[in-house]
């Protein structure tokens, strides 16, 4: 006897199927399974090459040839436009390599992006090889002679342009942003001040901003209330009128002195991530008293500067729990201190995290795998809620840590 289960429970069960291959197989089981699996299969689409596990997900293992990218794009385009374009309406997030806007791929991805009316998240990542910088006119891309649109058919919540080898032209970028008034997250870490649009539109919902420098960030702050700010390069020259609403700040290329000077202009700051500035962890920890001005700071994260040699990586420096305990005493509002474990053994970002009142650290692992090294682990997510506690590996000296030196 076949017992039918409520469709809500079937949706919950289907949500546990994570890999695309299994979802594709479920399409062939029955019409009912197809209706359940199809939206999940097309929701999140990536044209990026896979990671190498032995490198902890820091880069793509190899690139795809132009012919391979064109074949995959062509097959995907036929899939979402067949049957009246039903599947195209399921697409909410697309990850593209920079080469998607070059050569034979240009027209294919132009058609794909013009066929996804419900797209909410568009991210363009660094290709596996570097070529000469080219300019892309986003206006011509969406409204050119071959286009069927007068503007993008979607209303994005997230727009990220990480690749440096294809740069959006200033006028084209300004036009594109003016059509995306629903943007909540704008990630342009490679955009220089000279390439900023001459007339920036007001983005009333913008809360997350990743900019190359503070100069670029200031141009986007007008009429916006940025609460999550990341700067790719220092120095941090903030002012009171600019970023008073910032709650999360990530400054991986600014010195501790620059960051501490900016704290006066961010009275609501709760989460701060800084790099180790090529210094041993104990030395960095000894200077954290400079952050006393951050009265609401509750989570301090350290990101090891990628310029460091392997022998200089932070885990090679011994440090004691007393160093961390002193931070909690110096900054009373602080509840968490965490350090990025790099390179991670998986494609999930991991941190060694100390919690106030506990001498033993825990390992926090992101609940969502990183797409590429460019997405920077979606730093705007909640630093606790979006991570799970997982055990240290048996060989890790931090397992069972009781205050002895970490190595």
Describe what you observe in this structure:
The structure is a single chain. The chain is of the alpha/beta class. It has 3 domains: 1-41; 47-226, no CATH class; 249-407, no CATH class. It contains 11 helices and 16 strands. It has helices at residues 7-14, 20-26, 31-43, 66-81, 105-113, 138-143, 170-178, 214-220, 256-262, 281-286, 321-330; strands at residues 44-46, 93-97, 121-125, 134-136, 158-161, 166-168, 185-188, 208-211, 228-231, 248-251, 271-275, 299-303, 336-340, 350-355, 362-366, 387-390. The strands form 2 sheets. Strands 1-2-3-5-7-8-9-10-11-12-13-14-15-16 form a 14-stranded mixed sheet. It has a two-stranded parallel ribbon with strand order 4-6. Helix 10 (281-286) links the parallel strand 11 and strand 12. Helix 2 (20-26) runs antiparallel to helix 3. The termini are far apart. Residues 53-61, 306-317 and 401-407 have low confidence and may be disordered.
Write the layout of secondary structure elements.
Elements (H helix, E strand, L loop, with lengths): L6 H8 L5 H7 L4 H13 E3 L19 H16 L11 E5 L7 H9 L7 E5 L8 E3 L1 H6 L14 E4 L4 E3 L1 H9 L6 E4 L19 E4 L2 H7 L7 E4 L16 E4 L4 H7 L8 E5 L5 H6 L12 E5 L17 H10 L5 E5 L9 E6 L6 E5 L20 E4 L17
Parallel strand pairs: 1-2, 2-3, 3-5, 4-6, 5-7, 7-8, 8-9, 9-10, 10-11, 11-12, 12-13
Antiparallel strand pairs: 13-14, 14-15, 15-16
């Amino acid at each position: 006897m076949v017992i039918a289960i409520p469709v809500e429970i079937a949706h919950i069960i289907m949500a546990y199927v994570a890999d695309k291959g299994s979802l594709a197989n479920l399409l062939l089981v029955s019409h009912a399974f197809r209706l359940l699996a199809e939206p999940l299969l097309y929701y999140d689409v990536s044209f990026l090459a896979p990671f190498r596990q032995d490198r902890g997900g820091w880069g793509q293992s190899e690139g795809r040839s132009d012919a391979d990218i064109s074949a995959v794009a062509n097959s995907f385009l036929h899939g979402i436009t067949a049957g009246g374009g039903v599947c195209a309406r399921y697409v909410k997030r697309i990850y593209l390599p920079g080469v998607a806007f070059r050569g034979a791929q240009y027209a294919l991805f132009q058609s794909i992006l013009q066929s996804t009316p419900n797209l909410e998240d568009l991210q363009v990542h660094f290709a596996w090889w570097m070529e000469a910088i080219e300019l892309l006119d986003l206006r011509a891309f969406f409204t050119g002679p071959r286009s069927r649109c007068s503007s993008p058919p979607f209303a994005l919540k997230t727009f990220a342009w990480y690749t440096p080898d294809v740069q959006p032209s200033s006028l084209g970028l300004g036009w594109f942003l003016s059509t995306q008034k629903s943007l909540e997250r704008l990630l342009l870490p490679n955009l220089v001040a000279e390439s900023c649009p001459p007339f920036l539109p007001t983005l009333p919902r913008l809360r997350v901003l990743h900019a190359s420098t503070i100069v670029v960030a200031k141009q986007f702050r007008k009429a916006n209330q940025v609460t999550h700010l990341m700067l790719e390069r220092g120095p941090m020259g903030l002012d009171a009128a600019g970023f008073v609403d910032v709650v999360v700040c990530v400054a991986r290329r600014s010195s501790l002195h620059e960051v501490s000077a900016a704290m006066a202009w961010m009275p609501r700051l709760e989460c701060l991530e800084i790099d180790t500035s090529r210094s041993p962890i104990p030395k960095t920890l000894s200077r954290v008293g400079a952050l006393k001005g951050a009265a609401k700071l509750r989570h301090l994260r350290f990101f090891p500067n990628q310029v460091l040699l392997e022998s200089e990586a932070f885990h090679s420096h011994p440090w004691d729990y007393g160093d961390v305990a002193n931070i909690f005493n110096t900054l009373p509002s602080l509840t968490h201190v965490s350090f990025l474990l790099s390179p991670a053994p998986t494609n999930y970002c991991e941190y060694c995290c100390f919690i106030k009142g506990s001498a033993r650290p825990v390992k926090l692992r992101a609940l969502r795998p990183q797409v590429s090294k460019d997405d920077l682990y979606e730093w705007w997510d909640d630093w606790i809620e979006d991570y799970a506690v997982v055990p240290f590996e048996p060989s890790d000296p931090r397992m069972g840590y009781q205050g002895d030196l970490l190595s």
